[in-house]
């Protein structure tokens, strides 16, 4: 990395820290997001300890929750497990109940990755999108994008989880096909 690129990144990081400080001073809750936690379209595989450092920094700066995003959808159950084991065990890590997973379904593993987070690591916050709307332009052409809320709800119900508030899968499906 070139010196000016490093200085530019440090400047952006400093600005973000200032925004977090202002939000804290004005009692504005901020949810932190860490993107490309498993793979990056430019740099390839991402080290879990690098993600843990960013998550720890966001938590220490006052974010009330940290969402870990498999932004390009390359995660597998094994890579999700490796990530969560490092992030949740990192000194200064945010508590498990403040960690969310945000899985894209590009590789077809979003539901499996969510199950690993829920069952094996007791993460209980899952980001999703009605009908899987949205996505990442860097994941490739025609990539499926965000995991569909209706698929997550169906999986949770089938696994015996209780949902609050009560969500009926058929209501979500009717929204999808309107």
TrEMBL record:
**What biological process terms from GO does the record include?**
ketone body biosynthetic process; L-leucine catabolic process
Membrane-spanning regions, if any?
none
**InterPro entries per UniProt:** Aldolase_TIM (IPR013785), HMGL (IPR043594), PYR_CT (IPR000891)
Q: In which pathway does it act?
A: Metabolic intermediate metabolism; (S)-3-hydroxy-3-methylglutaryl-CoA degradation; acetoacetate from (S)-3-hydroxy-3-methylglutaryl-CoA: step 1/1
Give the reactions, separated by semicolons, that this protein catalyses: (3S)-3-hydroxy-3-methylglutaryl-CoA = acetoacetate + acetyl-CoA
**Family, similarity comment:** Belongs to the HMG-CoA lyase family.
Q: What is its EC number?
A: 4.1.3.4
Species for this entry: Opisthorchis viverrini (Southeast Asian liver fluke)
Q: Which PROSITE patterns match?
A: PYR_CT (PS50991)
UniProt keyword list = Lyase, Metal-binding
Q: What is the name listed in the Swiss-Prot or TrEMBL entry for this protein?
A: hydroxymethylglutaryl-CoA lyase
Question: Where does the record place the Pyruvate carboxyltransferase domain?
Answer: 1-173
GO terms (molecular function) for this protein are: hydroxymethylglutaryl-CoA lyase activity; metal ion binding
């Amino acid at each position: 990395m070139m010196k000016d690129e490093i200085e530019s990144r440090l400047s952006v990081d400093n600005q973000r820290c200032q925004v977090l400080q202002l939000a804290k001073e004005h009692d504005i809750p901020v949810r932190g997001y860490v993107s490309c936690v498993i793979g990056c379209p430019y740099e390839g595989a991402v080290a879990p300890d690098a993600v843990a450092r960013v998550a720890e920094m966001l938590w220490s700066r006052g974010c009330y929750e940290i969402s870990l995003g498999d932004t390009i959808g390359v995660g597998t159950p094994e890579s999700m497990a490796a990530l969560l084991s490092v992030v949740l065990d990192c000194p200064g890590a945010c508590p498990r109940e403040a960690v969310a997973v945000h899985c894209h379904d590009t590789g077809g593993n979003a539901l499996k990755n969510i199950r690993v987070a829920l069952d094996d690591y007791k993460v209980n916050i899952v980001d999703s999108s009605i009908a899987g709307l949205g996505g990442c332009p860097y994941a490739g052409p025609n990539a499926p994008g965000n995991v569909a809320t209706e698929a997550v709800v169906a999986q949770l119900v089938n696994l015996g989880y209780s949902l609050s508030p009560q969500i009926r899968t058929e209501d979500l499906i009717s929204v999808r096909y309107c």
